[in-house]
Amino acid sequence: MSDPNLIVGMERSEDAGVYRLTDDLAIVQTLDFFTPVVDDPYQFGQIAVANSLSDVYAKGGRPLTAMNIVCFPVNSMDISVLRDILRGGLDKMQEAGVILVGGHSVEDKELKYGLSVTGLIHPSRVILNTGCRPGDKLILTKPLGVGIINTALKGQMAAKESIDKAVACMSTLNKKASELMQTVTVSACTDVTGFGLLGHACEMIEDAGAGIVIDAASVPYIAEAKALAEMGLIPGGMYRNREFRAHMVDIDEQVPASLAAIMFDPQTSGGLLISLPGQEAPALLDSMHQAGIESAAIIGEVREGARGRIIVR
Amino acid sequence: MIEVDARGLSCPLPVVRTKKALEELGEGELLVLIERPDGCENVVRFADSQGCSSVVEEKDGLYRITIRKGGETPSGSVPQAANGVTQSNTSSGGVAPVLLFTSARLGTGNDELGAILMKAFLNTLAEADPKPAKMLFLNEAVTLTTEGSEVTDTLRGLEQAGVRIFSCGTCLDYYKLKEKLLVGVVTNMYDTVDTLLTAEKVIRI
Are strands A310-312 and A211-214 parallel, antiparallel or unpaired? Predict the structure, then answer.
């Protein structure tokens, strides 16, 4: 069914749906929930909310209201765990200025939590995850490697220090990054999640008539993830991502295998990947650093000559 | 031979089981059975990182990984890697050493001269063959691996050549350089002690 007011629908792999209400107002809708990635329930609540809101931020929208989605094994788990998750989630929503308006819970063998989010956006300012143009630079706003650290955590082989860094990264809202991005003209934006940096970069160049060259040395990642990747603490998702996009991605042999794994590592609540005209990138990066988005970095550029390919070197 | 049956297990369990078995194994060979190519790649990586050599045979979707701890590589086969560094970096004549740096300068005497000598030493090391397996940076030496250092490009070159570079986490914290690490990874005292005790040759710079 088509509707002239549907700006972003299901036909593409977009981060959120966008529907025009009036000439100057549209709603952004998204839903996301998952099983715990960390042991601490409060932290899990924070991460799940930051992750759910991220899709609205990637579109350039402002999340307004949210509803909790809860699956909980009420017979085998203490109810205080759920209370802590919801408290973590609510605190994060408050930080984001988002109002919780309700929710729904079901009994399930496995714990899951997330949000259904509604946000607002101007219909002419919707940022898609495709449309990057030759001459664009790419900015990534969070370090990679949380999937690898989460895998090491599952195997009880992650140091506390690296877990802390991953939790801090995953629970950081993409709010500031999104607001700063909206001060310039952006060609495309997506948030880096399950497909990893390179998987999401592949989505960005679909139909673009251009390709992306990534400078491996400038890609930000949590330092410990590299050593853990060298030890084979790599999630199965990384291998699936690599296999899925192998035909589009050329990685120079000088790039260490562990760094290549980090670039395909599935992220939870990852950063924004922003494509914008090259001459505007340094100023945006600078304002991000000043706003405390310390890991943000220019990681590559869009080139016509690389049409349809992601080249990493 | 000790056998680890990792069939049906998903990541990171094959690595966890392999780690446990390797810890129990004094010296000798270990066989890991695994069905998934991702798990297989992870186990091979883990074996490499522990300085063990490994050989993979695949038949009808089943991977048999023979890991050898200590001594020679598995009989009649080509090693994937040895001594925790890629093959090209292990000298034919012996084991690649671990270099320990505890100062940003080379030797004692004039500070300026010490800094010049350290730079010259690292540049020469980058050209040398064979290269060390690992380089550990402790105390003030972490200023060499962080922002403001003049030798980060040289160290990156060494890292790309397969040398593993570690900076002490406590030291980075103390000098407030944690966010400024430019090359290599952060390590802790546990791993540092382990590296020094298990290395066949440690050279203190």
Answer: parallel
Are A227 and B36 an interchain contact pair (Cβ–Cβ within 8 Å)?
no
A-interface mutation test, from B42, B43, B67, B190, most A Cβ less than 10 A away: B42
Q: Which residues of B touch A231 (CB under 8 A)?
A: 15, 45-46, 49-50
B49 to chain A, closest Cα gap in Å: 5
Taking the C-alpha atoms of residue A57 and residue A181, their distance in angstroms, rounded to an integer, is 10
Say whether residue B153 is in contact with chain A using an 8 A CB cutoff: no
Structure tokens at A265: 């590592």
* Whether residue B12 has a cis bond before it, omega within 30° of 0: yes
B168 is catalytic: no
Tokens standing for residue B85: 């560094």
Domain that residue B176 falls in:
98-204
Q: Give strand pairing partners of B202.
A: B98
Nearest-10 crossing angle of helices A146-154, A160-171: 130
Walk along chain A (313 residues) and give the pLDDT tens digit of each residue: 689 999 998 877 788 999 999 999 999 999 999 999 999 999 999 999 999 999 999 999 999 999 999 999 999 999 999 999 999 999 999 999 999 999 999 999 999 999 999 999 999 999 999 999 999 999 999 999 999 999 999 999 999 999 999 999 999 999 999 999 999 999 999 999 999 999 999 999 987 789 999 999 999 999 999 999 999 999 999 999 999 999 999 999 999 999 999 999 999 999 999 999 999 999 999 999 999 999 999 999 999 988 899 999 9
Q: Considering the domain boundaries, does residue B21 fall inside one?
A: yes
CATH number of the domain to which B175 belongs:
3.40.1260.10
Same domain, B173 and B108: yes
In angstroms, the separation between the Cα of residue B93 and the nearest Cα of chain A is 26
Count up the domains in chain B and report the number: 2
Residues B6 and B43 in one domain: yes
Q: What is the predicted ipTM?
A: 0.84
B13 touches chain A (CB under 8 A): yes
